[in-house]
Amino acid sequence: MAADAGRFAPSPTGPLHFGSLLAATASFLDARQQGGDWLVRIDDLDTPRNVPGAEDAILASLEAHGLHWDGPVIRQSERVSRYEEAIDRLSRAGHTFYCTCSRKRLKGQTRYPGTCRHLSLSAAGAALRVRTNATPIAFEDLVAGPIRETLTDTVGDFVIRRRDGIVAYQLATAVDDGQARIKRVIRGRDLLDNTARQIHLIRLLEGETPAYGHIPLLVNGTGQKLSKQTFAQALDDRRPTANLIHVLPALGLSPPAEARASTPEQLLAWAAGTFSLKALRDGPSSYRH
Ligand SMILES: [Zn+2]
């Protein structure tokens, strides 16, 4: 049987930047501390957003930074049949409905108002939504502490297959993270408010809910999360040790001065011995980059 695992799941929309390096490093250190495997999964279902060459650049960057993964790289694009099978199961059990609301019609609403919930619409030109209910979803985040969310109040019934036929991020993530092997999902704080939706799906699919830990985000000078959208710079793979030293403080780690002369592998081995997710609990939820 395969070992317990954590995972890093980048989208191939651009090269790694300091924000994604932080997320990769946190999940890597946690997996090493747990004695489990560290998997890399390329979340490449949203094909219109994929950038040619980005996957190779991300993997080369991880290698350069000593973030060596276990087993083959997993690609969501190669697993679509599993997601469709999960969608079929949800649909057969009555958990889904088709929705033809246009983006324009839903504009400005964070919560789906349930417009198509009882209309029994057909698949043509429709998105597929999963039904939510008023039972709160509660979980203990390893970093953010106790979280409780009632999906009918926050987002309502949400999309699991888009109108363009693409399996939605929430569904694919729930199928992959709900496998028995994935024990811990360590990722950026920006994904905290996706977690209740994913747990809802994992429960409906009778998967195994992993433990979640949402680490602080790196933000730029104007408080925006580092991302492709905010024009975060690609990492310079020629200075991996310096890059790691730059992000480790956001994980509560202050490498000693002599760490500058170490390889990324040596630095990560030191960090794995020192890192504490629990110690991040009382810290800030974002760090100025
Ligand atoms: Zn609708």
Model description:
The chain has two domains: 5-78 and 184-288, HUPs (Rossmann fold, 3-Layer(aba) Sandwich); 80-169, Rossmann fold (3-Layer(aba) Sandwich), CATH 3.40.50.620. The protein has a five-stranded parallel β-sheet. It is α/β, with parallel strands linked by helices. The longest helix has 17 residues, at 18-34. The protein has helices spanning 18-34, 54-64, 80-92, 103-106, 151-154, 169-177, 195-204, 240-247, 264-274; strands at residues 5-8, 37-42, 74-75, 96-99, 127-130, 137-141, 145-149, 158-161, 182-188, 211-215, 217-219, 286-288. The radius of gyration is 20 Å and the shape is globular. Residues 99-101, 115-116 line the site of zinc ion (ZN). Zinc ion (ZN) binds at residues 99-101, 115-116.
Task: Briefly say what this structure is.
With about 290 residues, this protein is α/β, with parallel strands linked by helices. The protein has helices at about 20-35, 55-65, 80-90, 105, 150-155, 170-175, 195-205, 240-245, 265-275; strands at about 5-10, 35-40, 75, 95-100, 125-130, 135-140, 145-150, 160, 180-190, 210-215, 215-220, 285-289. The chain has two domains: about 5-80 and about 185-289, HUPs (Rossmann fold), CATH 3.40.50.620; about 80-170, HUPs (Rossmann fold, 3-Layer(aba) Sandwich), CATH 3.40.50.620.
Q: Main traits of this protein?
A:
289 residues, 12 strands, 5-stranded parallel beta sheet, globular, Rossmann fold, 3-stranded antiparallel beta sheet, single chain, 9 helices
